[in-house]
Design brief:
Structural class: alpha/beta
Shape: globular
CATH class: Alpha Beta
Oligomer: single chain
Largest sheet: 6 strands, mixed
Strand content: 5-15%
Radius of gyration: 19 Å
Length: 271
């Protein structure tokens, strides 16, 4: 059996595994004595109106906004609220007949970063909020590991209602529902979209390329033919990570998120 003997390579391998474990919510590892791991500090107010190229000296200090910036953000919030109300009244496909709650999305109306999944699950349907079940807790860990909070970003889905038994979205359902997401993205004007899983990536990029080939590099999402492209990073859905919880998959997602932080010129925790 081959045994690795290069010390530097061993260190790089162990460092990568530790980073990915901490990234996905790990707080201890059973080696030697247990050390308390502090949650990375988070820059607040991550909006387009307060775009930061470096972390502020006090990362928990909310940047001061001008009256004009505040007005822009409140206008965006109001427009997103109007879309959420439309979603609540939507009857365009049959999914409305079985839902308990529609799930329009939530978060910062002026976010630089938007996460898009495929559809609500059972817990989301019960609460009317996106990503609050087991996969949602893992997404929250991912956002937290990036040095951000859920309130800093916007979180939504391709579909706004839960498919029966969490089955895959159907093409007809996506066709009826997708305009709600398009309108949300047009209002928010994010700098980067993270497509969580194949359905989100395929819909936004209009491709059938496997998610494993799409992830790891930036693509361009075009809101309309004459719009400025928005950078899109495809990565594995948190539900996929729960089903296939390997160190390689965890590390791949963490590498994708590091590229997102680098593109936003935000610090990478632990670096």
């Amino acid at each position: 059996m081959f045994h690795e003997t290069d010390p530097q390579r061993i260190i790089r391998t162990l460092t990568g595994q530790l980073e990915s474990d901490l990234f996905l919510g790990g707080r201890w590892l059973p080696i030697g004595r247990v050390e308390t791991v502090q949650t990375p500090t988070r820059p607040t107010g991550i909006t387009r109106a307060t775009k930061m190229t470096t972390a502020p000296k006090n990362v928990r200090e909310t940047p001061q906004l001008s009256n004009a910036q505040i007005k822009i953000i409140e206008e965006k919030r109001q427009r997103l609220t109007e879309i959420a109300e439309k979603v609540t009244q939507c009857r365009l496909c049959q999914l409305h007949s079985q839902r308990h709650n529609s799930v329009a999305g939530e978060g910062n109306p002026d976010a630089r970063l938007v996460f898009v999944g495929e559809a609500p699950g059972q817990t989301e349907d019960e609460q009317g909020r996106p990503f609050v079940g087991r996969a949602g807790k893992l997404l929250t860990n991912i956002i937290d590991a990036m040095g951000l909070k859920r309130e800093d970003v916007f979180i939504g889905n391709i579909l706004k209602c839960r498919p029966p038994n969490n089955r895959d979205p159907q093409a007809s359902e996506i066709a009826e529902c997708i305009n709600f997401l398009y309108e949300q993205l047009e209002i928010i004007e994010p700098e980067i979209i993270v497509a969580l899983g194949a359905h989100a990536a395929h819909t936004l990029l209009n491709t059938n390329t496997p998610i494993g080939q799409l992830r790891g590099r930036f693509h361009e999402y075009l809101p309309h033919p004459f719009a400025k492209p928005i950078k899109l990073m495809a990565t594995y859905h948190p539900a996929y990570l729960l089903r296939n919880y390997s160190k390689d998959n965890r590390l791949r997602v963490w590498q994708d998120m590091q590229k997102v932080l680098q593109e936003l010129k935000l610090p990478i925790p632990g670096k």
